[in-house]
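// run 5 | inverse folding | seed 20
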């Protein structure tokens, strides 16, 4: 199985940084981490500075957050990159082990 993590995001840059740091610690690593920017031009540089190799897909800015469209775009890109299973979440998700 080739698993993809798909994060949809707009704003909340510190939340995204924390999530990217968490993803970097996963073992095993996902096949791919797709980050879909919903009109936020800063996302590409935030993902690049993290150094985990996340793939950024950008959407044009809109008046509303196109959550479903962003999720579907991320899944499509992950499939193009060879993933056959995926986990979709927003930038506010921080899984923990207890």
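// decoded
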């Amino acid at each position: 199985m080739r698993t993809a993590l798909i994060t949809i995001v707009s704003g909340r840059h510190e939340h995204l940084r924390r999530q990217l740091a968490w993803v970097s610690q996963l073992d095993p690593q996902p096949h791919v981490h797709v980050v879909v920017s919903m009109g936020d031009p800063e996302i590409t540089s935030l993902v690049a500075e993290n150094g985990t190799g996340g793939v950024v897909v950008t959407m044009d800015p809109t008046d509303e957050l196109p959550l479903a469209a962003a999720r579907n775009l991320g899944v499509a890109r992950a499939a193009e990159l060879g993933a056959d299973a995926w986990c979709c979440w927003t930038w506010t998700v921080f899984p923990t082990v207890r």
